[in-house]
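Residues pack. One example:


***
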Amino acid sequence: MRYQVEFMRLSDIPQVIQIERESFSSPWSPRAYEKDLSDNELAYYVVLREAPDEGTEREPSRAYPVDRAAETVSPRRGPSAERAGALAALKGRLAALIWPGVLEKAKAPSQLPIVGFAGMWLMVDDAHLVTVAVNPSHRRQGLGELLLIEMLNLSRRLNAQRMTLEVRVSNYAAQALYQKYGFTVQGVRRRYYSDNGEDALVMASDSLNSPLFVSQLEEREKALQQKISWKPL
């Protein structure tokens, strides 16, 4: 099986929501994703698709669609309007450098099935990982690790200095994965999860640009590529 990673589109939301509902006890609404993709200049989301056979032309990945969604309620707390404006300008400049086709007209949505997704917010120097999920039928194959690697690489390209996240205190598998990539516990958010009042561990990576972190990330990415074939962003 081969995979490819692309930026999430509005047209991807129905498949994303299906995985969301199969993965989380308190799934986010479609409107929350519409808001982040359309209006939140701090948000970056990717999807993991089953790739076509080798030699088949791949539709190029691109940045988010330019159409805007109506108002919605986001499950996350955003920065101040002044800070958001400054970060939006920064994101626009970075996007122009990283994705030369960011202003081009969107092409037809991909028809390749989505098997996982991930998202983060770029908060000045911090990339805050807000979600990672894999279709239950594709779990235990290293795809969650693949998505984490892609988000770490994207964070480095966006000049983030570290990555932060929250994880349930009972989710030992996720904690082990994050620890494998150098994340350490920074604190606890009491009764963070609304479904059962469970606490969340706050975890953070080492400096994303330190020579040690970069070399370890590259080594682990190469090791995973020996097991999984994928095309990155």
User: Anything to note?
Assistant: Strands lie at 2-7, 43-50, 114-123, 126-134, 162-168, 184-189, 200-204, 229-231. The CA atoms of residues 32 and 73 lie 6 Å apart. The chain has six helices and eight strands.
